[in-house]
Amino acid sequence: MKISNVIISGTGCYIPKNVVTNQDFAKNNFFDENGQAFDASHDEIAEKFKAITGIEERRYVDDSLVASDIGAIASRLAIEDSGVDPETIDQIIVAHNFGDVKPNTIQTDILPSLASRIKQELGIKNPACVAYDVLFGCPGWIQGVIQANAYIQSGMAKKCLVVATETLSRVLDMNDRDSMIFADGAGACIVEIAEGEKQEGIIGMEVGTWTEEEACYLYLGKSNTIESDPNVRYIKMHGRKIYEFALNKVPQAMKSCLDKAGVDIHDVNKILIHQANEKMDREIIKRLFRLYKERNIPEDIMPMSIHKLGNSSVATVPTLLDQIRKGTSEEQHEFHKGDLILLASVGAGMNVNAVLYRY
Ligand SMILES: CC(C)(COP(=O)(O)OP(=O)(O)OC[C@H]1O[C@@H](n2cnc3c(N)ncnc32)[C@H](O)[C@@H]1OP(=O)(O)O)[C@@H](O)C(=O)NCCC(=O)NCCS
Predict the structure, then answer these.
(1) For the chain, what is the domain count?
(2) 146 and 230: one domain?
(3) What does the alpha-carbon distance between residue 311 and residue 273 come to, in Å, rounded to a whole number?
């Protein structure tokens, strides 16, 4: 008997050309949130930053590009990779947080939606191809995949293009040392129904939103310089609180995802976590394994791209997925037919999600 599976049939990504090293921030004057300069040299701040996040470099887009442009580039590659006729795509779901932001404007443009702009850039004419955005913090792309899966399972769609795109370089406070974390990038995939002999594709998921105390852990706030205009606002975060939140919530969400699918941690081949902070991601994995009373963590279980690409928000997971599929990742990782891959993310909202995928 044939089984109807929901699979990722193609992926693509856009990694911006401009490399920005930690040293490139030496020209910036960093202040704390009270406008006080740090009692440390730039080298000391950069060294500490690298030690606590793992980030050495990040990528920024050219001035001529906005988020929808790079989303369209990643989408074209995903469509090509999957071989689908773009006119047969039922939905275009685009995850982002700031929309299109032109250089030096700090102004979000989401009218029309990025999904409509990307559909136009792709030249898709079919009006039945519905295009809309998802605002879900960094977990937005995984959420888009969950949504695509739900529409496909319900029979309302057969093929969805799920895009992640972000140009965080356009919303940074260059006087805030936390700005060194953020990066630009885009990733995309085609999620579609496929008949098969065995169960494969999306086989489990878990999602949660915490707002009681956590809603504003990531927010918009004024620059750290004393004389800054409070009406001009940049991406800000309570980094330590996010760190603790992630360590508390993400391992449990990943385990719930595995439990629902009836899968044990020892059967998982790769875990792709949102690349926000290397130390944080390693601790999340450690805690996940601890939930199974397991102290031995397979060395190659968690691919990382944060050292060279930084945190491109929604785009980190689909970029990493595409790089591994195509053998272009910073580290040597491969997927094999039948592998179990766990995707997970945490971010603004505060949202946490996970998807289990059989390759
Ligand atoms: C922001 C973050 C890097 C700070 O790291 P941390 O270990 O929590 O930092 P702490 O506030 O405990 O401070 C530890 C040290 O690092 C320094 N530090 C903190 N942030 C820093 C930064 N951005 N750059 C350089 N040094 C930093 C502190 O001054 C302190 O130094 P000290 O030991 O000399 O006193 C970290 O909390 C983080 O990455 N959080 C998650 C952020 C995240 O995921 N954001 C995106 C969500 S999508």
Answers:
(1) 2
(2) no
(3) 11
- Ligand 1 center–CA 181 separation, angstroms: 10
Q: Which atom of ligand 1 is nearest to the CA of 178?
A: 23
Average of per-residue pLDDT across 82-107: 97
Distance (Å) from CA 218 to ligand 1 centroid: 14
Q: Are 212 and 259 in contact (CB under 8 A)?
A: no
* Parent domain of 332: 201-358
Q: Which of 196, 227, 248 is the endpoint of a domain?
A: 196
Q: Report d(CA 72, CA 117) in Å as an integer.
A: 8
Residues 174 and 212 in one domain: no
Ligand 1 atom 28: residue of nearest CA: 48
Q: How far is the CA of 52 from the centre of ligand 1 (A)?
A: 6
**Pairs from 41-50 (Cβ < 8 Å, separation ≥ 24):** 45/177, 46/22, 46/180, 49/22, 49/177, 49/180, 50/22
Q: Ligand 1 site: residues with CB under 6 angstroms? A: 45, 48-49, 52-53, 138, 177-178, 180, 237, 239-240, 242-243, 276-277, 280, 311, 347
Cis amide linkage into residue 112, ω under 30° from 0: yes
pLDDT given at position 331:
86
Confidence (pLDDT) at 1: 81
Q: Is 311 designated active site?
A: yes
Are residues 209 and 104 both part of a single domain?
Answer: no
Predicted model pTM: 0.96
Q: In this predicted model, what pLDDT tens digit does every residue of 219-270 receive, in sequence order?
A: 999 999 988 999 999 999 999 999 999 999 999 999 999 999 999 999 999 9
**34 belongs to the catalytic site:** no
